[in-house]
């Protein structure tokens, strides 16, 4: 400010000097006019007064100009002060803004630190999970290899078994062919059951496949089935042809383990029908060899046997049916008769 005032003062002086030069030329003119008017008399008295008045006038004028310049400088100073104040305020505002930004940056730094920590935690978890996964994959791969080995082993065994089965099937086919070519219609064997002497039985393989024991066969009409109780109890006939196993043996056999029943009927036109029951069990002699269980029926002959369920066995000398007549006599055969219409 001080420098600015000095410049202003110098400027004012310079203006004043220039004005004085201009004024002086006008003054010289006035002097000359006064000198002419006053002549040599008034010159000595008036001239100094005039010069003094002129000097005062000039100084007042210069003073007024200086005052004006001073006012202008004062205004400039005031303006500059305002500008400075404004700048200071602006700086303060900027400082506040900077402080606010610093706080914001600090908060952001904290947030960033938290996020970094979270990311590190997540990474650690991810690594842990991946390690666990890798371990599981390795375990599973090991299991798969083990299974593959087992499968391979089973495949080898299966191939060996298939070869054995094929061999057995070939042998069975050969055996069946031999049987087919022979005159035998069935195979006989000895069966052993608890509480009874071993006894021969006939196995049929043609009617319903292997494994069926024949308890009755009536095909040739050579055997008389009109027998008494004792004969039906012990059995009769030829194992290879017409035959009845005997009620006591059938009782022991069906009691020893669950049995199915298969009945095949062939009429005089060679039409064959069959009936199959999922269970077959008869009671003891004390129960008159009652038909205790029969199971579910299947086949194409119609279910003619279920109605005999719970019936006792009847022979010509033992009437256990439910009608007045003895159906065993009527039909000349023993059976689990219900009435004489059905058997
Ligand atoms: Ca009767």
UniProtKB/TrEMBL annotation:
Pfam families: Fibrinogen_C (PF00147). Keywords: Coiled coil, Signal. Residues 112-185 form a coiled coil. SUPFAM superfamilies: Fibrinogen C-terminal domain-like. InterPro entries: Fibrinogen-like_C, Fibrinogen_a/b/g_C_1, Fibrinogen_a/b/g_C_dom, Fibrinogen_C-term_domain. It comes from the Eukaryota. Residues 1-30 form the signal peptide. GO terms for cellular component: extracellular space. Residues 175-343 form the Fibrinogen C-terminal domain. This is Angiopoietin-related protein 7-like. It comes from Drosophila hydei (Fruit fly).
């Amino acid at each position: 400010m001080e420098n600015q005032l000095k410049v202003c003062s110098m400027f004012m002086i310079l203006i004043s000097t220039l004005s004085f030069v201009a004024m002086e030329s006008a003054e010289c003119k006035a002097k000359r006019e006064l000198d002419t008017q006053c002549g040599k008399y008034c010159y000595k008295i008036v001239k100094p007064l005039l010069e003094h008045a002129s000097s005062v006038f000039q100084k007042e004028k210069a003073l007024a100009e200086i005052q004006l310049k001073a006012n202008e400088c004062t205004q400039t100073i005031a303006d500059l002060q305002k500008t400075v104040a404004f700048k200071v305020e602006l700086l303060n505002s900027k400082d506040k803004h900077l402080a606010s930004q610093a706080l914001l940056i600090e908060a952001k730094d904290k947030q960033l630190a938290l996020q970094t920590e979270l990311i590190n935690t997540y990474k650690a978890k991810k690594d842990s999970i991946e390690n666990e996964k890798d371990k599981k994959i390795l375990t599973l791969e090991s299991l798969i290899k083990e299974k593959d080995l087992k499968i391979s082993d089973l495949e080898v065994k299966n191939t060996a078994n298939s070869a054995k089965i094929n061999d057995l099937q070939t042998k069975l086919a050969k055996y069946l062919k031999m049987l087919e070519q022979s005159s035998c219609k069935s195979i006989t064997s000895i069966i052993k059951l608890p509480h009874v002497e071993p006894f021969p039985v006939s196995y049929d393989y043609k009617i319903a496949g292997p494994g069926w024991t024949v308890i009755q066969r009536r095909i040739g009409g050579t055997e008389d089935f009109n027998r008494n109780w004792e004969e039906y109890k012990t059995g009769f006939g030829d194992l290879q042809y017409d035959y009845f196993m005997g009620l006591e043996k059938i009782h022991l056999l069906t009691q020893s383990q669950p049995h199915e029943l298969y009945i095949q009927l062939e009429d005089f036109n060679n039409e064959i029908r069959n009936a199959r029951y999922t269970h077959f069990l008869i009671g003891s002699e004390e129960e008159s060899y009652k038909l205790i269980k029969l199971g579910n029926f299947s086949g194409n002959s119609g279910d003619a046997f279920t109605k005999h369920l719970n019936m006792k066995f009847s022979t010509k000398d033992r009437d256990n049916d439910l009608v007045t007549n003895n159906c065993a006599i009527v039909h000349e055969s023993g059976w689990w008769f219900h009435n004489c219409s059905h058997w």
